[in-house]
Design a protein that fits this description.
Strand order of the largest sheet: 5-6-9-12-15-14
Radius of gyration: 16 Å
Structural class: alpha/beta
Shape: globular
Largest sheet: 6 strands, mixed
Helix content: 10-25%
Order of helices and strands: EEHEHHEEEEEHEEEHEEEEEE
Strand content: 25-35%
Number of helices: 5
Number of strands: 17
């Protein structure tokens, strides 16, 4: 199976070069940009229209912190499904023998969508993600994995979720873990794939933009053969 993983298109999905011979496309959140849900809704609907027309058999979407119109239910799950798109929000689906789980939840930062405080995330991952997941899709990364950004003082930090990393490495052990949320930042490259020596999971940051340089793409996502 050839999977095309993309994330954080932020309204620039039309700039993507759609590869051929892809069996499944997975978008791990932030197809839109505005914080206000009513301004956000047209961007999400424009994305759904584009996404639904891709000549790819299976299309999956998991929301991100910028997708405020989805959180506020201005865009519903049925809006995705009636357009041939699988929408996962702390839920899973079986496809071709693979158990695929998606969650939009990220650690709290400012006033964005689908966020929980870090002290609640261990309980969230414990309750929401089963042990036998093959592909785990989250909007945000595990801590220390393709997650370098700047804090409020412009110091570099690994800003992913430590609880998520612990659950992925010690309990869930998926074949693939797909996320975005943390884009490329100046000369820091987060987009891409990696593996750790301590587990067999392939980690993929599918973000396609660079902070401060929206309007052009810095990546075309990742193609993973499973």
């Amino acid at each position: 199976m050839r999977i095309w993983h993309i994330s954080d298109t932020h309204g620039y999905h039309d700039l993507l070069d759609v590869p051929k011979d892809i069996d499944m496309i997975i978008h791990s959140g932030d197809c839109s940009n505005p914080r206000d849900p009513y301004n956000n809704e047209p961007e999400v609907r424009n994305f759904i229209d584009w996404y639904s027309k891709l000549d790819i058999p299976t299309k999956i979407y998991v929301a991100g912190n910028h997708d405020s119109s989805i959180e506020k239910k201005l865009v519903s799950t049925s809006d995705f499904y009636t357009n041939g798109i699988i929408y996962l929000e702390d839920d899973f689906i079986h496809i071709d023998g693979l158990k695929i789980h998606g969650s939009p939840i990220t650690p709290s930062f400012s006033n964005w969508s689908f966020m929980k405080s870090r002290d609640k995330l261990d309980k969230h991952w414990s309750r929401s993600v089963d042990d036998d997941v093959d592909i785990l899709i989250t909007h945000g990364p595990p801590k220390g994995i393709l997650d370098i950004s700047e804090d409020r003082n412009r110091n570099l930090e690994n800003c992913g979720c430590n609880a998520l990393k612990r659950h992925v490495i010690t309990r869930i052990k998926p074949r693939l873990m797909l996320f975005g949320h943390i884009h490329n930042n100046k000369e820091i490259i987060n987009a891409g794939t990696m593996k750790l020596s301590i587990c067999d999971t392939i980690f993929s940051n599918g973000s396609v933009v660079t902070d401060g340089r929206f309007g052009k793409l810095s990546s075309n996502g990742n193609i993973i053969n499973l």
